[in-house]
Design a protein that fits this description.
- With 322 residues, the protein is mainly α.
- Helix content is 72%, strand content 0%.
- The longest helix has 38 residues.
């Protein structure tokens, strides 16, 4: 199968599923300070229902973490060959915005992989969890590379959109993939800021993350407002392959909300600021928006789900549902 950056949606989605299971365990199971580890599981104290549920979460974490890491290695090799050959890369970047925006998917996926290593994989591998602080500097360097990549690609995309005729009628919710990448890069940086015990490393990560969060939120508000305007003006839904992309708003909103929450944790830890109210607002507002948008999309696309979702060919946009 011919390589395309959209292939990275496979490890991206797998990593997202692994992180969902990990986050549930992080908040549902009592444990010590920091991230939960396998050694924190007091199996004898759990009920039969809890044991069954937690075992299911562990299987999900392990399976999807392996899928994320394995597919990332495979696609990184293909990506390197694709970039070296240049011809297909240049053709891809000169395509319409709703296709060329796919160049952000590998950046988003690699950001997700960084979070998978720091959380679900560290849960299972004692050497990772016990040496979490020693991983902060390499993590900061990796975050810096992702930070540079997402800004360089965004500036290149903006230049292309401003310097060439743009058919706005072709824009759709796939156009939000760069915002999604900004959200995941922010999540990586703010994770380092909230977890790192070294103030200098944490401060660099937090300050850098504010740049991605600021630009990401501006892009999100601007693009979402314009897409909603275009959708109302069109007076009809897009073609079926585009419809699942409506759900991209959900992970983007969650990523920004959780990233701001982690910035609040950083301020609380290193500056002794009482950020509990702001943390409450960021988390709850982001989840209220995602729930509202999710219910609206289910209603809006109800005919698609009833008549086409199970019978149509696979579209890359369906990863947006995950």
């Amino acid at each position: 199968m011919k390589f395309t950056p959209f292939k990275f949606q496979i490890p991206l989605a797998a990593g997202g599923v692994a992180l969902m299971a990990f986050n549930y365990m992080q908040f549902a199971v009592p444990h010590g300070k920091g991230l939960i580890r396998l050694s924190d599981m007091s199996w004898s104290e759990f009920t039969a229902v809890q044991t069954s549920l937690y075992l299911l979460m562990l299987v999900i974490m392990l399976v999807f973490s392996v899928i994320n890491l394995g597919s990332t290695v495979i696609f990184l090799k293909e990506l390197a060959q694709w970039l070296v050959e240049k011809v297909e890369y240049q053709e891809f970047m000169e395509s319409p915005p709703t296709k060329s925006i796919g160049i952000f998917v590998p950046v988003a996926s690699l950001s997700m992989t960084a979070n998978v290593i720091l959380a679900p994989m560290a849960f299972f591998v004692p050497i990772l969890s016990s040496n979490l602080q020693s991983m902060m500097l390499p993590g900061l360097i990796f975050f810096g590379l992702l930070w540079l990549a997402v800004f360089i690609l965004e500036f290149r995309a903006l230049k292309a959109w401003l310097s060439h005729p743009l058919d706005v009628t072709q824009l759709n919710f796939i156009w939000l993939l760069d915002v999604f990448a900004f959200g995941l890069v922010s999540l990586t940086g703010t994770g380092i800021a909230a977890l790192c015990s070294n103030k200098e490393i944490a401060s660099i990560a937090a300050f850098s993350s504010l740049f991605t969060l600021s630009l990401g939120v501006c892009l999100f508000v601007t693009k979402l407002a314009y897409l909603i305007y275009l959708q109302i003006k069109a007076s009809r839904l897009p073609e079926k392959p585009i419809l699942p992309a409506f759900f991209l708003v959900i992970p983007i909103t969650c990523l920004f909300g959780f990233s701001f929450y982690r910035i609040m944790l950083y301020l609380q830890i290193y500056f002794s600021l009482d950020t509990r109210m702001l943390s409450f607002v960021f988390i709850n507002v982001s989840y209220v928006i995602t729930i509202g948008w999710g219910v609206f999309c289910l209603y809006l696309l109800s005919v698609y789900f009833k008549e086409d979702f199970l019978t149509c060919d696979f579209f890359p946009t369906q990863w947006g549902l995950v």
